Amino acid sequence: MLGAAIGAGISAIGGIFGGMSASKAMRNVKNNLNQQRAENRNWFDRRYNEDATQRADAVAAVTQMQEAIRQRNKAAEGAQAVAGATEEAAAATKEANAQAHADAVSRIASDAANRKDSIESQYLSKDEALQSELNDLERTKAQQVSQATDKVTQTAANISQLF
């Protein structure tokens, strides 16, 4: 009878220790998931708030466009001076060049809006997955607490029957 009581007590202590170890492991997993969410948020904040006109590809495109416009304007002015082209022709060339520049900047802005939508979608998708993992972890933790409580209650009932 004494051996059964000692066995039941050891079983209860083992269950409690196992529960504490599992709880610590879950806490570590939860901390890791929360850290991943914070890193995901930092990535989103950094990428979403970037100035699209300052990105290397946009700067290169605008620089190329400006150089091409300068060359076309210079050629139009040269043609006017040498061939006697009208001022209206040179003005029309400059206007067309200005429109091309405006179109390029508009495309950059449009691409930036699409890029922001993509970044937001990636962020939300990853955040949803991480939040789902956190929810699953909490459900598992609740189940394990319930099982440990049931085990301790059952062990206590078994010990009380012995006495």
Q: Could you tell me the radius of gyration in angstroms?
A: 35 Å
Q: What is the beta-strand fraction?
A: under 5%
List low-confidence stretches: none
| Percentage of residues in helical conformation | over 70%
Using the alpha-carbon principal axes, give the shape.
rod-shaped
Could you characterize what this model shows?
This protein is mostly helical and 163 residues long. 93% of the residues lie in helices and 0% in strands. The chain contains 3 helices and no strands. The radius of gyration is 35 Å and the shape is rod-shaped. Helix 1 packs antiparallel against helix 3 and helix 2 runs antiparallel to helix 3.
Please give a handful of descriptors for the protein shown.
single chain; rod-shaped; 163 residues; mainly alpha
Topology:
Layout: H1 2-48, H2 56-83, H3 87-162
Helix pairs in contact: 1-3, 2-3
How would you summarize what this structure contains?
With 163 residues, the protein is mainly alpha-helical.
